[in-house]
Write a structure and sequence with these properties.
The complex is a heterodimer of chains A (about 240) and B (about 600). Chain A is of the alpha/beta class. Chain A is about 30% helix and about 35% strand. Chain B has about 600 residues and is α+β, with helices and mostly antiparallel strands. Chain B is about 45% helix and about 25% strand. In chain B, β14 and β15 form a beta hairpin. Classes of the chains: A alpha/beta (about 240), B alpha+beta (about 600).
Chain lengths: ~240, ~600
């Protein structure tokens, strides 16, 4: 197996909302380069919280080990996530993480091409035309490049989002319910494309979904949650790694 | 990149962007117009209304004699008096004006004007020249005349029960609009009014060829020189001051005599100087002294304090300064010389003779004599004769020297037509005065009333317009304040709302890894672009509207005036203000929008 990109041990995040407290506990999670990791569970189980932690937008409440390995000056460097500043986290994110949002999260004022290329300008990582063409061709977006997202179907939008997340060759792709807004066959396509591309590029994919059937059997790592009520208004969700 | 993204977003949402631009422009444009009016000529118009010459006018209520000196002192003492012109008696200003082209005639009253008269100038009329007049609108209407027409002015007097008419013609150089005066008045130069008054008083006015009494200058003396064979007793000395009009008798020595009389005493004579204090002596007083000394072989000659004169044979030649004294035939017989005959016989017919020292550089013949007292100056043509014995003294006949001596007390002018010295006017019965500012009116009124001059001012009206002015100012600033506050809140609200609308995109950009300060730049650029275009639009609207306003009111404006105008400086200030406000509200809104963690903010959608 490849070297790990994420290493989590005893990471805990407590969130309180309207008097109710929710605790997510991750006893142990290691995600390796090129792995396809699925996070499944019903809504409210802590999938999104876990993804936010991995996306460096949410800081853990407690952790004994929580690190991300990134390539910095051509050497692999392991960063301790809780000690990152907001801007530091943003700098790591722009170079190393591709994010696929539930509804695509495309910018409506940019064309498909511009939406894809924005990752390139933000990350500052140059992309050759061939790579771009290959990626776009693989996702079947050749004819849509000059359209604005509002003229695309849900599936096409999601593919554009995948392209945007991949174009700058990040080490990690985080996909937050990328198939929630599309029909089942399209969802399968998108899943396959994600898995395929990740495999090709050696990218770790963390895909969050509530649909277990979509990822069953194809994940390298699968995270599930065990929910326990620990008090009147306190919930503890423990993320368990399975296969 | 952020700027490009911001611009693309604006173009993408072009309809909403236009709405925003229109909204901001519609806030700014009325404010611009309001301030444009305030800083444009509306202020001038308003101050023109407030500072209307009518409100600044001060006129005496009682007739009194105001000397020329009084006018001079007043001008010096009160620099806040911007204009003052003397007036003659009310009764002598009425005149009949006849339209020479038509047949209309009308009784007008004359009003003196002079250079700088605000009543004419501030109503856009130029000051009339010497043979011109400015009519008030009612007067012009009654006479059916317009600018450039000729009028015949007739003034009437009764001399020994007979009516006489004096006429002169003037052309109409301007018409004063109705708001300036509702009376039928003709504004003319002061000398025309003086001439009319002189004529009505029965005097001659050579300028217009009107006959009458000449105000000939009369000789005045400062005393009498008494040359007597035997010294006078104390009693006789006292007698000379008794009922003669003189107050002092002083015996003068030989050297003193040269200095005071201008000539050496004959060896066998004793000299006395009989003089007055402060006042001038006339011919009668000298005659009285002559009578007292009858039979004593005394020569009594009129005496004047030597006058400092200068003589020049031509305007280009350098003037020569001399002291002029009076001589009489009695004196000259004691000091016989060839010039006496010429001086006294040939003199009055053509030119007055003046005897100058034999060694004077001046040639004999025609010359101009000049003398000056305070601000009164006089130039008279004379004929020079040589033969005087005393250097630095010139001699003239007692009558001529006495007339020149009158300049010490009164204004005397030389009239070429009659070849005589004429008395100028002593003073004036009234005046018309304007202060520079309405605020000065009260001070001047008080100062004049301390002098015992009751005056009429537009005190009540001044109070009214001042109140009106301050209310107008207050109302303007209230409107402006409401407008500015409304503008600020609307601008802030519009930009805030537009950022709020962009919340999702901002958070997507954040997830893609943009730093927070880059995220904040996005709405700031958008705010600047939007408010910048709104400014341009508002500026355009302002220019258009101000042009329309200026065009509509162009009839009421002088050239180079515009009713609605703003300086580039104002625009810069406005731009800076709007931009600062845009940046401020966009930053605030952006920070507010990115407060939540981005993924959560997106999920909340």
């Amino acid at each position: 197996m490849n070297e790990p990109v994420y290493r989590l041990r005893e990471v805990e995040k407590i969130r309180t909302k309207g008097g109710a407290s929710f605790t997510l506990r991750v006893p142990e999670l290691v995600i390796h380069r090129g792995a396809f990791c699925s996070v499944v569970g019903p809504s409210g189980c802590g999938k999104s919280t876990l993804l936010d932690l991995l996306a460096l937008v949410l800081a853990p409440t407690r952790s004994s080990c929580f690190s991300i390995s990134v390539v910095h000056n051509q050497t692999l460097e392991e960063c301790d996530i809780p000690s990152l500043s907001e801007n530091g986290a943003a700098r790591i994110r722009r170079k190393n993480i591709g994010y696929v949002l539930q509804n695509g999260g495309l910018l409506p004022f940019l064309t498909v091409r511009e939406n894809i290329m924005i990752s390139v300008s933000i990350s500052g990582r140059p992309v050759v035309q061939k790579e771009f063409d290959a990626l776009v061709g693989f996702l079947g977006l050749e004819d849509q490049l000059n359209k604005k997202p509002q003229y695309l179907s849900g599936g096409q939008r999601q593919r554009v989002a995948v392209a945007r997340a991949l174009i700058h060759r990040p080490a990690i792709i985080l996909a937050d319910e990328p198939t929630a807004a599309v029909d089942y066959p399209t969802a399968l396509d998108i899943r396959d494309e994600l898995k395929h591309v990740a495999h090709e590029m050696g990218t770790a994919v963390v895909m969050v979904t509530h649909d277990r059937t979509l990822v069953n059997g194809i994940s390298d790592v699968q995270v599930q949650f065990e929910i326990a009520r620990t008090g009147l208004s306190a919930t503890l969700a423990t993320a368990l790694v399975g296969k | 990149m952020i700027l490009r993204l911001a611009l693309k977003d604006i173009l993408h949402d072009w309809l909403l962007s236009i709405c925003l631009v229109l909204a901001i422009a519609s806030i700014i444009a009325p404010l611009l117009i309001l301030f444009g009016l305030k800083f444009g000529t509306i202020q001038t118009l308003q101050s023109r209304l407030v500072q209307d010459p009518k409100n600044r006018e001060i006129r005496p209520l009682t007739t009194k004699s105001y000397s020329r000196d009084w006018f001079d002192t007043l001008r010096k003492k009160h620099p806040e008096v911007s204009f003052i012109v003397p007036m003659t008696r009310q009764i002598s200003t009425s005149i009949t004006a006849i339209n020479t082209a038509g047949d209309s005639s009308e009784q007008l009253s004359l009003m003196a004007t002079a250079t700088g008269d605000p009543l004419l100038l501030e109503n856009g009329v130029t000051i009339p020249g010497h043979a011109a007049c400015v009519l008030t609108e009612p007067a012009a209407q009654a006479l059916h005349v317009s600018i450039g027409d000729e009028l015949l002015f007739t003034t009437r007097r009764i001399i020994q029960g007979k009516y006489e008419n004096g006429e002169f013609s003037v052309f109409v150089s301007g018409i004063l609009e109705g708001r300036a005066s509702s009376l039928k008045t003709a504004f003319v130069r002061l000398d025309i009014i003086e001439a009319v008054e002189d004529y009505k008083d029965g005097r001659a006015v050579p300028t217009y060829g009107w006959e009458g009494e000449m105000p000939t200058a009369y000789p005045v003396f400062d005393g009498a020189a008494v040359l007597i064979p035997a010294p006078l007793s104390k009693l006789e000395e006292v007698m000379l001051t008794n009922n003669t009009g003189f107050t002092q008798v002083n015996r003068i020595g030989r050297e003193e005599a040269v200095a005071k009389l201008g000539y050496a005493l004959p060896p066998e004579k004793t000299a006395y100087l009989v003089a007055v204090k402060q006042r001038a002596a006339m011919e009668e007083s000298i005659q009285a002294v002559r009578n007292k000394l009858r039979g004593k072989g005394a020569i009594v000659a009129p005496w004047i304090e030597p006058l400092a004169i200068s003589l020049a044979s031509s305007p280009t030649s350098p003037p020569v300064a001399l002291k002029l004294v009076a001589v009489t035939e009695g004196i000259t017989t004691t000091d016989p010389s060839v010039w006496a005959q010429q001086m006294f016989e040939g003199a009055d017919a053509h030119r007055q003779g003046v005897l100058i020292p034999s060694d004077s550089p001046l040639p004999e013949g025609e010359a101009t004599l000049s003398l000056q007292f305070e601000d009164r100056a006089l130039n008279v043509p004379v004929t020079l004769l040589k033969g005087g014995r005393t250097t630095s003294f010139a001699y003239a006949s007692a009558v001529f020297a006495g007339r020149l001596n009158l300049l010490r007390y009164r204004n005397v002018k030389y009239d070429e037509k009659t070849n005589s010295l004429l008395l100028s006017r002593r003073g004036y019965a009234g005046f018309r005065m304007y202060t520079a500012n309405i605020d000065d009116v009260e001070n001047i009124q008080q100062a004049l009333e301390r002098e015992g001059i009751t005056v009429h001012t537009e005190k009540e009206r001044i109070g009214e317009v001042r109140r009106l002015d301050s209310y107008m100012g207050l109302i303007f600033w209230l409107i402006a304040a409401v407008g500015v506050v409304g503008g600020i809140s609307a601008l802030t609200a519009s930009l805030y709302a537009s950022v709020e609308r962009k919340k999702k995109e901002l958070n997507v950009l954040r997830l893609l890894g943009l730093l927070k300060r880059e995220i904040v730049l996005f709405p700031i650029f958008q705010g600047l672009l939007l408010s910048g275009s709104a400014l341009l639009l508002a500026g355009g609207i302002f220019l258009l509207v101000s042009r329309v306003i200026n065009h509509l009111f162009s009839a009421h404006l002088r050239t180079a005036e515009s009713l609605c105008a703003l300086s580039p400086w104002h625009f810069m200030l406005l731009t800076a203000g709007v931009f600062v406000l845009s940046v401020f509200s966009a930053t605030f809104a952006a920070l507010q929008a990115t407060r939540l963690d981005p993924a959560e903010a997106l999920r909340d959608e």
